[in-house]
């Protein structure tokens, strides 16, 4: 039954590909495989023949179809690819490198050696090929991709194409990298700010190299976007000129430098600001997007009217009210918030029954929280001093008691310096 289900699934997938071919000029073998990812039921090469019954091509099974690795300039690596002849005739296989035009960087053909260079494979026989990659010492940092074509068979197209779509291929990805010489210990700035206030932030850069490295931090022009609200696009809460950057021109060998940001939030600011600081680090091992520090600021306003909650008591037992702030500082958890001293959360409570206002007696105050050791993408053991700690969650609790009575009640809560709060109302003695 399971085999029958697999055949039906493959038949349905191939039928879907046939229909889509009516609207597509060309489909590669790799793209055909992508239709069959469910149930891990990969379409075999002989299924491709169903796309064109008059098409003659070598029917090979190639394993793996894709391979990815990470290499440093000047290093090498090799992988083994097994090719199985699923045809009824002997096939001559001559692997060669073909261009993959949609990659960030394209492999040079001289970087890859495939052995054996040629092999005749009989029906149902297997042959292993070794693909050796040699990355030159002067290779640029980045992602590279190419295809290894084991035969010259290509998908037919109704028009001439610069890059043929080979059928019997495997795709090769290589991430060429070197360890960065500067560690960005503050990868993200996030904060909740108020209109008319000023804030200070720090980005720490540690130079682990044996020579000085130049930097030139500036607001990035290529990393700005607007908010989308319920009524369309919303512009930023403030412009780039609200941020002032102060930084040294170099980070000395073995030392840590501090890039300082000063934010002056305009009095009429509303909404949010998203952007980035391009550190412009003169280190080829740091890619352009890795040398940026993302910024996300939310402008908010303290509420002026209290939140009200109606409740009913059926006894004259004492009333206990607990109110707690519960701020999840995700921005400061992942990176860093303002260096300024943060104002503590607090609450202004008012309780009124059918006979009028009732005096509330605060009997307990509790502080608690969750502390993150370092940013999510930076090892905490690389951090220096107190900068390793970030308040991820901060909880402040106030507990009040009041004499009870039977009837209707109204509780008013006016929060300050918190973006969310919880409350509980208990009728009766609290143990």
Helix-strand layout with pairing:
Layout: H1 2-21, H2 29-34, H3 45-48, E1 60-63, E2 66-71, E3 76-85, E4 91-93, E5 96-98, E6 105-106, E7 112-115, E8 119-121, E9 126-134, E10 142-149, E11 169-176, E12 182-184, E13 188-194, E14 198-207, E15 213-214, E16 218-219, E17 227-229, E18 232-234, E19 243-246, E20 250-251, E21 256-264, E22 271-278, E23 292-300, E24 307-313, E25 319-328, H4 330-334, E26 346-353, E27 356-358, E28 361-373, E29 389-402, E30 407-416, E31 421-427
Parallel strand pairs: 2-11, 6-10, 13-23
Antiparallel strand pairs: 1-3, 3-9, 4-8, 5-10, 7-9, 10-11, 12-14, 14-21, 15-20, 16-22, 17-18, 19-21, 22-23, 24-30, 25-29, 25-31, 26-27, 26-30, 28-29
Q: What can you see in these coordinates?
A:
- It comes from Methanococcoides burtonii (strain DSM 6242 / NBRC 107633 / OCM 468 / ACE-M).
- This is NPCBM-associated, NEW3 domain of alpha-galactosidase.
- With 431 residues, the protein is mainly β.
- The protein has 3 domains: 175 residues, Sandwich (Immunoglobulin-like); 119 residues, Immunoglobulin-like, CATH 2.60.40.10; 121 residues, no CATH class.
- It is 8% helix and 45% strand.
- The chain contains 4 helices and 31 strands.
- The strands form 9 sheets. Strands 2, 5, 6, 10 and 11 form a 5-stranded mixed β-sheet that branches.
- A hairpin with a 2-residue loop joins strand 17 and strand 18.
- The longest helix is centred in the N-terminal third of the chain and has 20 residues.
- The N terminus is likely disordered.
């Amino acid at each position: 039954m399971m085999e029958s289900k697999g055949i039906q699934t493959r038949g349905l997938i191939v039928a879907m590909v046939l229909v889509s071919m009516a609207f597509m000029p060309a489909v590669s073998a790799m793209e055909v495989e992508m239709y069959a990812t469910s149930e891990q039921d990969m379409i075999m090469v002989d299924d491709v023949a169903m796309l064109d019954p008059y098409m003659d091509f070598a029917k090979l099974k190639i394993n793996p179809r894709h391979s990815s690795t990470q290499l440093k300039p000047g290093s090498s690596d090799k992988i083994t690819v097994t090719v199985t002849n699923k045809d009824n005739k002997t096939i001559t296989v001559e692997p060669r490198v073909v261009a993959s035009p949609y990659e960030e960087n394209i492999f040079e053909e001289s970087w890859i050696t495939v052995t054996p260079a040629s092999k005749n494979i009989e029906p149902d026989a297997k042959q292993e090929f070794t693909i050796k990659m040699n990355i030159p010492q002067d290779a640029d940092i980045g992602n590279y991709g190419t295809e290894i074509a084991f035969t010259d068979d290509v998908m037919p197209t109704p028009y001439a194409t610069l890059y043929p779509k080979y059928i019997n291929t495997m795709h090769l990805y290589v991430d060429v990298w070197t360890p960065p010489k500067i560690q960005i210990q503050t990868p993200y700035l996030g904060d909740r700010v108020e209109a008319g206030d000023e804030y200070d932030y720090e980005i720490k850069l540690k130079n682990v190299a044996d020579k000085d490295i130049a930097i030139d931090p500036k607001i990035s022009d290529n990393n700005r976007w607007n908010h989308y609200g319920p009524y369309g696009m919303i512009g930023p809460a403030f412009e780039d000129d609200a941020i002032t950057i102060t930084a040294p021109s170099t980070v000395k060998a073995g030392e840590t430098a501090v890039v300082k940001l000063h934010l002056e939030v305009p009095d009429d600011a509303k909404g949010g600001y998203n952007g980035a600081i391009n550190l412009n680090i003169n280190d080829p091992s740091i890619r352009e997007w890795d040398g940026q520090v993302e910024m996300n600021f939310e402008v908010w306003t303290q509420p002026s009217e209290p939140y009200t909650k109606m409740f009913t008591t059926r006894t004259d037992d004492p009333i206990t009210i607990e109110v707690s702030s519960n701020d999840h500082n995700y921005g400061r958890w992942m990176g860093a918030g303002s260096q300024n001293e943060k104002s503590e959360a607090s609450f202004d409570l008012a309780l009124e029954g059918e006979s009028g206002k009732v005096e509330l007696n605060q009997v307990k105050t509790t502080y608690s929280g969750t502390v993150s050791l370092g940013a999510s993408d930076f090892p905490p053991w690389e951090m220096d001093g107190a900068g390793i700690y970030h308040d991820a969650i901060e909880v402040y609790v106030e507990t009040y008691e009041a004499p009870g009575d039977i009837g209707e009640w109204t509780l008013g809560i006016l929060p300050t310096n918190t973006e969310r709060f919880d409350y509980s109302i208990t009728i009766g003695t609290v143990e």
